[in-house]
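Worked example 3. Consider a protein that binds glutamine.
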Amino acid sequence: MTALADDRAARTFLGHPRGLFVLFFAETWERFSYYGMRAILVFYLTKHFLFGEDKAYLLYGAYTSLVYITPVIGGALADRWLGARRAVLFGGALIAIGHLTIALVEGPRGAQGGFLQGFYLALAFIVVGTGFLKANVSTIVGQLYPRDDIRRDPAYSIFYMGINVGGAVGPIVVGLLGELWGWGWGFGAAGVGMLAGLVNFVLFQPALGAAGLPPSPQALRARGSIGLSTETTIYAAAIGGVVLIYALIQYQDLVGWLLVAFAAATVAFVLWRAVATLERDARNRILAALFLCALNPLFWGLNEQGGSSLNVFTDQRVDRHLFGFEVPASQFQSLNSIFIIVFAPAFAALWTWLGRRRLEPSTPAKFGIGLALTGLSFLVLVWGAASGNALTPAIYIVLLNLVMTWGELALSPVGLSAMTRLSTLNMAGLMMGVWFLSTAAGEYLAGLIASLTGGAGTGADQILTVYGRIGWLGIAAGAAVVALSPFVRRLMHLDTIGRDDVAHGLDGERTLAEPQAPGYPIAGERPA
Ligand code: GLN
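Given these inputs, the predicted complex is written out as structure tokens:
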């Protein structure tokens, strides 16, 4: 690193390295494009391509699952060769190409043929691009901090705010442009947003210091038997991957099976690497990380009812009148992101405050609390709906979102932080990919739960019965996780964390963050 880059990387803002805010805005724009596009995707399929609703939902499910399956591959490639930063740049470029392609190949209403093929190809660009970007941008955040720095969980809470600024603004901007002005304007705005994120990342990346650099620049430049460098080979293979996803996304039934097979193979690979290459403490930490990932399908299965069954419930069973207007159901979708933006700083401050007093709950205990709060949020709605009115007052949807958001803040940013802290540096991207893969299983489970609620045609009772059950299930699972948390925490070996990375063969330019800056106490989680 040059002295200048060194200097930039050392500067802080609000007590955090400046690089955190570079990643914050890069992720804001990427999520702006992702959630913005997702908000109009089903409408585009049903109103522009004139798909039936069932076919549209299937494609939507396949797309949102694939988007979270591919980060495992992008993460592993970054660990081994690319480094997270190059992966983010390449992924961002593919994502922008994808959104802009959708905008440009719109075609006349109802025309499928080549226009539809172009659209599938564009989705494949976004899927592969997200595979390169999503896990890796999240990994770099962790690399800005020593592993035992108490600012890590707060940093991920702040980063999570960036995600949700994009999640809140994207649907509003892309949704309004797409639905009112023309689809192409909406998708085009998503593409331009991603480009803005890339420009921001390129301009300000010196603030990242050494975080996310390739592990070995020589290995990246080395030429293989066909004369291409490793780096070029990876990019060429990624384009091959786009063609593969383009074919796959047209067979949505296969995606569920792919998810199961891919998840099993990935867990086997991680276990093999942990057993074959790591000594006991580091290996146990990977097991602890896998335990946390195993809670994701249930958590996201509940949390992701928001866009499906809860949306339908809000539309049909909730009194949405406010000052004489009827608020459209879709507007309630932004509540989750808005509450995250409002409460993320409070959670960040809470963890720091508790950490300084050695009272911070352990990571697995936070997961238990997160699960229980998510379960409780459904019971809030069930109790509200039982208040005797024919239509449930809208305040209960607001309260549900409030409690659910608290649960999300106790689990999701904490989980991102844990993935980087519990992995060795050369497995960090892979483990972040496993994290997102387990959320893909959550998306899938969410679809199954939504179908149990009976969908649009069923009475409220069916939905409320299912909500009551998943509510209590969440609370019971959360309590069990809190009870197990001391054992899982022991697997995390907090007494040796932050000292063992050097043993794992780091080479090249990449170094760990500097030892803890004076003035920051050691992490709140003390060894048992
Ligand atoms: N809403 C968060 C994001 O977009 C988490 C999504 C997930 O992990 N499935 O990053």
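Take a moment to read the result before moving on. Residues 1-5, 499-528 have pLDDT under 50 and may be disordered. The pocket of glutamine is lined by residues 31, 68, 163, 300, 412, 439 (CB under 6 Å).
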